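ENTRY TYPE: protein
CONTENTS: sequence, structure tokens:
***
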Amino acid sequence: MPWTLDEALERSQWDTFWLPPGASVVDRPELLFWATPVENPSLNSVGRVRAQPGRLPFLFDEVVDAHAGRTSRVQVGPGNRSEDLERTLRARDYAPVCQHVAAGLELSAWRGREARPGIEVLRVSRPEDLAAAYRVALLAFDAPDTWTADDLAQNLAACTGPGARVCRVLARDRSTGEPLGSAGMTAFPEL
């Protein structure tokens, strides 16, 4: 593997194919961020910061202006964490709100298994299945539902359209059809 797991995860965030039409993307070696008029931190986010400490205040003034008062997220990890970055973020009212822990598994080590009896797992291919997958994920992460019908249509196309790079699955109770969980996987050809 040419990168560590941390590097591969960070680089996966640099691929903005999933953003809705009309999103603005600023992509320079020292900064990658995207902005939309929607109040959703995933859609107003910074995916890369690679700048000298003296440049950080100017870059984050640009980000704050682009996000225009909407909730915004900055991804901070082993590749960019520094006291200067954290100081710059605190000065602009950013605060740590969540931490993600990731693990990697070589594909050759993967051992598939069947779902438990009474649970069916299906690949999302219909709008109602995608909506159910989002509803259960929103409950799990206590997140607001900001998805529109257009967002669902775009995301369904990413799952089912030509060259689909996203696989979403929905687990549900076989007898009631009640959604129990959801998961997804995105392919990153460059990685």
Q: What stands out?
A: The two ends are 9 Å apart (CA to CA). Strands lie at 24-28, 31-35, 45-49, 73-74, 119-123, 166-173, 179-186.
